[in-house]
Amino acid sequence: MLDPSKIRKTLDDTAAQLTKRGFKLDVAQVQDLEARRKQAQVAAQELQQERNKRSKSIGQAKGRGEDIAPLLAEVGALGEKLGEAEAELAAIQQALNDILLGIPNIPHASVPEGMDEAANEEVRRWGEPAEFDFEPRDHVDLGESLNAMGFDTAAKIAGKRFVTLHGDIARLHRALIQFMLDLHGGEHGYSETYVPYLVNPASLRGTGQLPKFAEDLFHIQEQDLYLIPTAEVPVTNIFRDRILAAEDLPQRYCCHTPCFRSEAGSYGKDTRGMFRQHQFEKVELVQIVHPGESYEALEALTGHAEEVLRRLELPYRVVTLCGGDLGFSAAKTYDIEVWLPGQDNYREISSCSNFEDFQARRMSARWRNPESGKPELVHTVNGSGLAVGRTLIAVMENYQKADGSIRIPEALQGYLGGQSYIGNGTG
RNA sequence: GGAGAGGUGUCCGAGUGGUUGAAGGAGCACGCCUGGAAAGCGUGUAUGGGCUAACCGCCCAUCGAGGGUUCGAAUCCCUCCCUCUCCGCCA
After folding, report:
1. Nucleotides of B under 7 A from a protein CB
2. What are the residue numbers of the active site of A?
3. What is the ipTM of this complex?
4. For A274, phi and psi rounded to 5 degrees?
5. Residue A75, CB, less than 7 Å from strand B?
6. By the 8 A CB rule, do A261 and A216 touch?
């Protein structure tokens, strides 16, 4: 959420900044509601003040043993008028709040102009895509020939966009999780965390998935709980309604969870394989930082995610998302894209974002600034480090051999009892 | 799941309808005292919002959440959430 008083004071400027991401703010509507809010709020508060004064004097009269009947008569229809004024104010505030909750974050000045991914800017590239002296296969072919991936089986058990993994591929999948957690926890200074996979609506409102993006989530009606679409939701909400001491910043968490997404808006997109699934594993990096340090934190966090790919020796590039491609809550996002020989393309494997105070305001996550002595909003930064399913795909496709076997990256061999190949081949 | 107890400010804790935004204590900040410190004494110390160009100031809201009763609710009633104790069940 943007700062309501700032929107009020710099409405036109705010609207102009939002056009960078293709969002049209209805300035006239906000102005109208705001004017009505002001009028209604002043009216309601004056009536409340009147009520408070009279009630107090009734109490005082009663304390002195006087007859309060005439005072009660005087109050008359005040209560009714007050009720009406409060109801009117509540309705206006509700309407205003609905609009406010639906306004996306303002893109940072360094975010490139543009409306779709074609306008994203590549900032760096690492590694060279390997040359194969045979036609490289994609992970679906590889997985099925190894009898290690079951798309049909998963469809039978659950439905489309699920997978079963077996044997060494399942072990490799698990090893990737361990490897990532050890790297971020052990070397990058993140504290490993375990969280609920079901969350309440307030948590999703805090990070920005609700109220606008309910159709992307799996919802459990009976208890009104949602399956998490990313660990970002439960981890960031650890700090909802909290005030941290200055010395508690920054907070850095790494967290492995499954993620659940309905993929409602992506029918027919990436339907082959396990690139886009309803359920996937991810190791998430989350930082709660001093507002002056969030952009340094974003650079550092992106570097931490990249380090996973460097250790696995997987070629990748980093792009800055343009305004139109930016997620709802983000002020700036770097996508990390890994090379996939099966698609002959770089594909997203991590998304690292600075949300500035957008999420913090929604969830009232604050720190006490010693300079002012007052609670002020923190900044939140997070990113995937990395999406595990996609990393598995990348390892399989980049490390495949002509006979369909897969070499295991050196960084992972220790997690697999020293094993160096998966499959029938010896290399 | 059954029975009971409870959720108050940074923390502990009083308050069961009326000058209570909230006693008292702890903590913290500043001042006095001291050679310095401790102790002692004094003062201050919630959050959100509105009016205002802004400061000062004034006002409104908030005692788990949401409704209700009342001129007036932290206090009474209802619903929900959470915590604790005992019993049952259980990975």
Report:
1. 10, 18-19, 47-52, 59-61, 71-72
2. 261, 276, 348, 351, 390
3. 0.85
4. -105, 25
5. yes
6. yes
